[in-house]
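User: Can you model how cobalt (II) ion sits in this protein?
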Amino acid sequence: MLLLNLDHVAIAVADLDEAIERYRSRYRVEPIYREIVEQQGVEEAMIPVGGSYLQLLQPLGPETPVGRFLARHGEGLHHLAYAVPDIEAALAHLAAEGAELIDSEPRIGGRGARIAFVHPRGSNGVLTELVELA
Ligand code: CO
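Assistant: Here's the modeled complex, given as structure tokens:
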């Protein structure tokens, strides 16, 4: 399977405005966009860093995946995302390798990208996202 790039590192935050301001003042970085992704129950901000992004995720409510993550673990690293050229081929390969897929088929994420998640179980404890950019 071909990984093109580390697309983003996602951090779960309780307050997106506050997190953006902290990254702005500490690291002098600026989000290039901010988007509500209803289907994932998050508002996200993407901050470019080199060829990748820092993705700050604020849950839209407590009964969302990121809301439950925050309640359980507090703020912190949530997932890593790799850009792939062909997400269906990547998912087929991972399924054949015995990876536990959260999404057996791609769905639409931020930036209109096609995305799919791989469960941290059996993946060295890391929630992993595949991204095929539009
Ligand atoms: Co992500």
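A couple of observations from the model: The chain has one domain: 5-132. The chain has three helices and eight strands.
User: Helpful, thanks.
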